[in-house]
Amino acid sequence: MSDLNWQDLSAQVVALLQQSRQRVLTQMQRALTIDEKTSRKDLVTNVDKGNEQFLIQGIRQLDPQAQVLGEEGFGDHVTSTTGRLWIVDPIDGTMNFVKQRDNFAMMIGIYQDGVGQLGFIYDVMKDVLYRGGPQLGGVWANEMQLTAPADLALSDGLIGMSSPLVIHDVAHMQAIVHASAGMRIYGSAGIEMINVMVGKTLGYISHLKPWDFAAGQILLNTLGVQMSTIDGQPLDMLSSNLVLVATKQAQRDILQIEEDDVSL
Ligand code: 2AM
Ligand code: CA
Ligand code: CA
Ligand code: CA
């Protein structure tokens, strides 16, 4: 579809996400139906499922030819990144959604033949929608354009992580924390990526699925922040990855720790 107007598409996705936010806020006033997926720490609610259905229905109207990959399984069975691919996380940070009613996000990433085009991360309770990518030539938080975060070294900033990695000291996490100015854990990949975009943290490390990193990869790359596997390799868009988000300098520092195989 060479006649696609990305500016218009972006505005339509913003409208869809705003509608979706209103629906979620209404549903939050009623009791949630909560189920366990793989464990008691991996939850899904009626709102995750309903919102994915709502978003995918909207996406089908905007881009009928595209493939859609959604966390809760209401999209397509995607086995290739050829053509246009939308990747959707309807509620990112479901545990926060259930326990805090705060600190969760909606995320959409749009790829063309495996290359990121537009990304959206919506901090629902703060009502700040981050949108951007190569097709918009920048990243905006609502109407404010973001500037690239400072290229800090690992020792000069805070790093976000997911708790299982730290608890089990996967891939030298404790050495990385030790070398940084400190660790923070927010419980939502989307919120963590926002924190890196605005310079509150210099990076984030977590074991993530495509819907957890698809939108963030586009937005962060547009701001000059690196996203790779913990070994510095490109991410596989169709499977789990141990994801390293970091400023250029911090990425070098962390890859060096991995290479040196240091322990505390
Ligand atoms: P989710 O809430 O959309 O499932 C929590 O540490 C962060 O990691 C959230 O962004 C969460 O996304 C993501 N995550 C990825 N895999 C997970 C899993 N198996 N269990 C819980 N959270 C997971
Ligand atoms: Ca989930
Ligand atoms: Ca997620
Ligand atoms: Ca989710």
TrEMBL record:
Pfam families reported in the protein's UniProt record: Inositol_P (PF00459)
Keywords: Hydrolase, Magnesium, Metal-binding
Residues the record lists as binding Mg(2+): E71, D89, I91, D92, D212
Entry keyword annotation includes Metal-binding: yes
CDD domains linked: IMPase_like
GO biological process: inositol metabolic process; signal transduction
Keyword Nucleotide-binding among record annotations: no
GO terms of molecular function: inositol monophosphate 1-phosphatase activity; metal ion binding
Cofactor: Mg(2+)
PROSITE patterns xrefs: IMP_1 (PS00629)
Superkingdom of origin: Bacteria
Protein name as annotated: Inositol monophosphatase family protein
